């Protein structure tokens, strides 16, 4: 297995701009107006050091800002002043998306029915199959749309990208392009009005309410500004997204239902109901990262942000609950400093494909970097 790259980062404006242009996954950095940016750079350089074992090209490729005590709403006042949303954006923001509301209600009613009656009659083999299918869908989101496409925390051969795209559509969300755009905006403007699932608007809004209403004008504005060229260039993603309805209907609904019917010989009502249970649990697992992991848990790496370390979300979302760490070090392919330990099934999955050569350039934060950041910004529990 290829060893993950150990990366130490140092802030300077050129490195930040370069990285922001390429991946647009950076945390917003405090406005420097009225301050001396050169002095700030010097301060940050003292706080950072490069690992001598890393080739220079890797360091310049993945520079990462380490501004002391970042404050994520600092960008808003100036941005708000210069941004006057159009009447169309305001109207869209205030509207309810009835199609999504009805769809989510239907999935939960059908899912609860399937959960109540299905568990009493379903065969063990069919139950194990649907659990495995649910895990596959989860991995499509965590290892695919999240760690690969949103954060570029590792590289994947086309064969693995095809598998991940199919898995992603099994989870039954939106297109990969839209998921990645929303997630990059979430990281860049976390817990502000420009965050698609801003936790300050309440637990329910961050969980699934944001899908039921129009987007805040700031979310649309910042989403349009993002550089999504890497996603548009990915042929696997482009093909799947162009065939969105076919991909979602086939991998999320038709395939698991037909396998339950013709391989496990279950009655039709049970096939549909069981798949709906899987879909309901999978949706809530993904949503819990935006709600539960932004609400409950400790902040050992950065006490200034809402994302928290949450073991429950980690168990539900295949390793995505170490969310305070993830928001501080979003480039880390493991989304935590514990590797595949502590319920990180997604890391185990990526490690396996790294072993067979389909995943490479796994990036991770160095121990010293994590300790330094935790000592400076953490809540003291690290
Ligand atoms: Zn988050
Ligand atoms: Zn992320």
UniProtKB/TrEMBL annotation:
<keyword id="KW-0472">Membrane</keyword>
<dbReference type="Pfam" id="PF00487">
    <property type="entry name" value="FA_desaturase"/>
</dbReference>
<dbReference type="InterPro" id="IPR005804">
    <property type="entry name" value="FA_desaturase_dom"/>
</dbReference>
<keyword id="KW-0444">Lipid biosynthesis</keyword>
<dbReference type="GO" id="GO:0005506">
    <property type="term" value="F:iron ion binding"/>
</dbReference>
<keyword id="KW-0443">Lipid metabolism</keyword>
<dbReference type="GO" id="GO:0006636">
    <property type="term" value="P:unsaturated fatty acid biosynthetic process"/>
</dbReference>
<comment type="similarity">
    <text>Belongs to the fatty acid desaturase type 1 family.</text>
</comment>
<keyword id="KW-0408">Iron</keyword>
<keyword id="KW-0812">Transmembrane</keyword>
<keyword id="KW-0276">Fatty acid metabolism</keyword>
<dbReference type="GO" id="GO:0005789">
    <property type="term" value="C:endoplasmic reticulum membrane"/>
</dbReference>
<dbReference type="GO" id="GO:0004768">
    <property type="term" value="F:stearoyl-CoA 9-desaturase activity"/>
</dbReference>
<keyword id="KW-0275">Fatty acid biosynthesis</keyword>
<protein>
    <recommendedName>
        <fullName>Fatty acid desaturase domain-containing protein</fullName>
    </recommendedName>
</protein>
<feature type="transmembrane region" description="Helical">
    <location>
        <begin position="158"/>
        <end position="176"/>
    </location>
</feature>
<feature type="domain" description="Fatty acid desaturase">
    <location>
        <begin position="124"/>
        <end position="330"/>
    </location>
</feature>
<keyword id="KW-1133">Transmembrane helix</keyword>
<keyword id="KW-0560">Oxidoreductase</keyword>
<feature type="transmembrane region" description="Helical">
    <location>
        <begin position="125"/>
        <end position="146"/>
    </location>
</feature>
<feature type="transmembrane region" description="Helical">
    <location>
        <begin position="101"/>
        <end position="119"/>
    </location>
</feature>
<dbReference type="InterPro" id="IPR015876">
    <property type="entry name" value="Acyl-CoA_DS"/>
</dbReference>
């Amino acid at each position: 297995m290829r060893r993950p790259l150990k990366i130490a980062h140092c802030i300077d404006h050129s490195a930040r701009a370069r990285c922001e242009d390429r991946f647009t996954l950076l945390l917003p950095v405090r406005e420097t107006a009225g301050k001396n940016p050169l002095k700030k750079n010097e301060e940050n350089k003292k706080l950072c050091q490069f690992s001598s074992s890393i080739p220079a090209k890797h360091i310049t490729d993945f520079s990462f800002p380490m501004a002391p005590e970042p404050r994520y709403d600092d960008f808003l006042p100036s941005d708000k002043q210069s941004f006057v949303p159009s009447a169309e954006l305001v109207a869209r923001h205030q509207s309810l998306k009835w199609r999504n509301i009805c769809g989510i209600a239907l999935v939960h009613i059908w899912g609860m029915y399937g959960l109540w009656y299905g568990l009493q009659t379903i065969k063990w083999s069919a139950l194990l199959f649907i659990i495995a299918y649910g895990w596959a869908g989860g991995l499509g989101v965590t290892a695919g749309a999240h760690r690969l496409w949103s954060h570029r925390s590792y590289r994947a051969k086309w064969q693995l990208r095809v598998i991940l795209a199919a898995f992603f559509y099994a989870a039954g969300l939106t297109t990969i392009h839209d998921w990645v755009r929303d997630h990059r905006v979430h990281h860049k403007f976390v817990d502000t009005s420009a965050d698609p699932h801003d936790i300050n608007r309440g637990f329910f809004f961050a969980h699934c309410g944001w899908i039921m209403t129009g987007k805040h004008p700031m979310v649309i504005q910042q989403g349009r500004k993002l550089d999504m060229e890497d996603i548009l260039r990915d042929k696997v993603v482009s093909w799947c997204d162009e065939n969105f309805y076919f991909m979602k209907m086939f991998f999320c609904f038709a395939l698991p239902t037909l396998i339950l019917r013709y391989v496990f010989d279950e009655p039709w009502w049970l096939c549909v109901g069981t798949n709906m249970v899987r879909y309901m649990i999978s949706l809530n697992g993904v949503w819990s990262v935006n709600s539960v992991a932004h609400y409950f848990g400790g902040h050992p790496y950065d006490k200034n942000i809402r994302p928290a370390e949450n073991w429950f979300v980690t168990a539900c979302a295949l390793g995505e609950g170490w969310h305070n760490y993830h928001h501080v070090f979003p480039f880390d392919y493991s989304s935590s400093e514990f590797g595949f330990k502590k319920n990180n099934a997604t890391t185990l999955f990526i490690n396996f494909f790294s072993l067979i050569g389909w995943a490479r350039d796994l990036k991770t934060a160095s121990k010293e970097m994590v300790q330094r950041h935790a000592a400076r910004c953490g809540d003291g529990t690290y």
